[in-house]
Amino acid sequence: MEDCNGRDVRETIEKLAQQIAEADGSSLYDAGREESKAPIRAKALRLLDQRMRSRKELVERLEAVEEFPTSMIEEVVDDLTRSGLVNDELFASEWVRQRFASRGKSKMVLNRELQEKGIDASLRADALEQITHNAEEEVARKLAAKKAATIKSVAPGFNAKQKDLRKVVGVLARRGFPSELSMNIAREQLENRYRELEADTD
Questions:
Q1: Which of 95, 97, 92 is nearest to 122 (CA)?
Q2: How far apart are CA 150 and CA 36, in angstroms?
Q3: Nearest alpha-carbon partner for 4 in 82, 77, 131, 98
Q4: Contact in structure between 140 and 184 (CB atoms under 8 Å)
Q5: SS (H, E, C) the chain
Q6: At 2, is the pLDDT very low, low, confident or very high (cuts 50, 70, 90)?
Q7: Contact predicate 143/104, CB 8 Å
Q8: Rounded to two decimals, what is the model's pTM?
Q9: What's the pLDDT score for residue 201?
Q10: Cβ atoms within 10 A of the Cβ of 40, count?
């Protein structure tokens, strides 16, 4: 997800910095505390400028810096959430869209990844709705066809054919596609490959 932020993030960062500066004249402004939070905020903004991050991920990265107090980390992340720089709903949607399109990951794997990023169940479900059954099946078919294309000869017997089948199924299984879907598509693409090889020998 290296391209999730871009210009919008930088513009928001500039606005946030301006808002913080303008707050200096407010009676609610604690100059000392804001000064203590400044390095935490700077680190957080650098991380967000690299790519979009979930709240949990950002907090964990900041907590890895020993000199950053946990209470101030939470305050900084709360500020960033209010400004829109930290948005788990948008993060989840972009994570699913990009990793499904570019890496061919299944809904099951993407759901697990989002859970690890601290995204709650309702937001995960909403984000995953953008992947239809047909879209997931098409991605699985492309992956299976690519793997089947590496097979150079028609299997001479049952055991050899099963070995080829396991190779194709394995590609889909590792990406978390449902077992029945994986097996059906693997068989389909393996048979297509065998027909291609047989046609080449005619």
A1: 92
A2: 58
A3: 98
A4: no
A5: CCCCCHHHHHHHHHHHHHHHHHHHHCCCCCHHHHHHHHHHHHHHHHHHHHCCCCHHHHHHHHHCCCCCCHHHHHHHHHHHHHHCCCCHHHHHHHHHHHHHHHHCCCHHHHHHHHHHCCCCHHHHHHHHCCCCHHHHHHHHHHHHHHHHCCCCCCCCCHHHHHHHHHHHHHHHHHCCCCHHHHHHHHHHHHHHHHHHHHHHHC
A6: very low
A7: yes
A8: 0.74
A9: 74
A10: 20
Q: Six-digit token pair at 5?
A: 């932020």
Cα–Cα distance between 29 and 51 in angstroms, integer? 30
Written as one letter, the residue type at 121 is: A
Give the whole-angstrom CA distance, residue 17 versus residue 32: 17
Cα distances (Å, whole numbers) of residue 144 to 67, 96, 172, 200: 49, 21, 7, 20
